[in-house]
């Protein structure tokens, strides 16, 4: 008998395999564009908040209007540079493996589908490969917000977005983003192979999962039929058989 702390593939609702026709691809591109635009809007708001705080501090210190102006410009430029350099910093630290798309595909094909998955926290591992949209979204998320992993509570509740920093500043604890980071488990089929996946409730994203080794899951983030990135999650306890 499978314990209640394990999500079982056969108990999950089925998600259809994304089609590869032109119409589906166009819709997928539109969804991905809208998603990237929303992330860009968040970055803009974060930059605006940082600049506003810098301006308030400069004024409180009694700096001249000229110094305040150039200080604000400097903070805004530093923020943009921090976003743009995130992928490079992740690669330098080893958090991003910088594999080619072909290498990522090979690892995915060699991994085993999940018939069951224990609940609990899944620690963020390496990002293996990403295209340009993945770098734009995932680079700053991993580096500036310190993505720490995902928590599987049960088949209907997954917290996808968990972090330990805000705008590059560690906060000393793990926090999740409600609503937007909410997901559920589904039985997803890719290339004719069915496995457990995490489907966001309010974003057009599915994280397809397979087992890379005894302690590592490989994830393939999809927006429609577009593969955005490959990433890994680490497990710290016994696996379901």
Short recap of the structure:
The protein is of the alpha+beta class and 241 residues long.
Describe the protein's architecture and organization.
- With 241 residues, the chain is α+β, with helices and mostly antiparallel strands.
- It has a single domain (6-36, 92-234), classed as GXWXG domain (Lipocalin), CATH 2.40.128.
- It has five helices and 13 strands.
- It has helices at residues 22-60, 65-84, 86-93, 101-110, 132-144; strands at residues 6-8, 14-15, 112-113, 116-118, 120-130, 147-154, 157-166, 169-176, 182-190, 193-200, 206-213, 216-223, 226-234.
- The strands form two sheets. Strands 5-6-7-9-10-11-12-13 form an eight-stranded antiparallel β-barrel. The protein has a two-stranded antiparallel sheet with strand order 1-4.
- The longest helix has 39 residues, at 22-60.
- The protein is elongated and about 65 Å long.
- Residues 237-241 have low confidence and may be disordered.
């Amino acid at each position: 008998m499978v314990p209640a702390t394990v999500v079982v593939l056969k108990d999950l609702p089925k998600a259809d395999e994304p089609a590869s026709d032109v119409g589906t691809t166009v819709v997928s591109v539109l969804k991905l564009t809208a998603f990237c635009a929303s992330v860009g809007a968040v970055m803009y708001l974060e930059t605006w908040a940082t600049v506003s705080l810098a301006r308030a501090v400069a004024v409180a210190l009694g700096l001249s209007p000229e110094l305040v102006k150039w200080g604000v410009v400097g903070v805004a430029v530093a923020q943009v540079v921090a976003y743009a350099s995130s992928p490079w910093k992740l690669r330098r630290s080893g958090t991003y493996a910088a594999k080619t798309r072909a290498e990522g595909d090979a690892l995915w094909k060699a991994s085993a589908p999940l018939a069951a998955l224990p609940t609990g926290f899944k620690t963020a591992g390496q990002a293996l490969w990403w295209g340009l949209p993945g770098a734009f979204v995932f680079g700053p998320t991993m580096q500036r917000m310190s993505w720490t992993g995902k928590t599987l509570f049960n088949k209907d509740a997954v917290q996808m977005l968990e972090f330990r920093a805000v705008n590059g500043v560690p906060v000393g604890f793990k926090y999740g983003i409600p609503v937007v980071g909410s997901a559920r488990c589904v039985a997803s089929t890719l290339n004719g192979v069915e496995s457990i996946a995490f489907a966001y409730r309010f974003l057009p994203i599915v994280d397809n999962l397979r087992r890379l080794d005894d302690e590592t899951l490989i994830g393939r983030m999809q927006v429609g039929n577009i593969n955005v990135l490959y990433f890994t999650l680490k497990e710290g306890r016994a696996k379901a058989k």
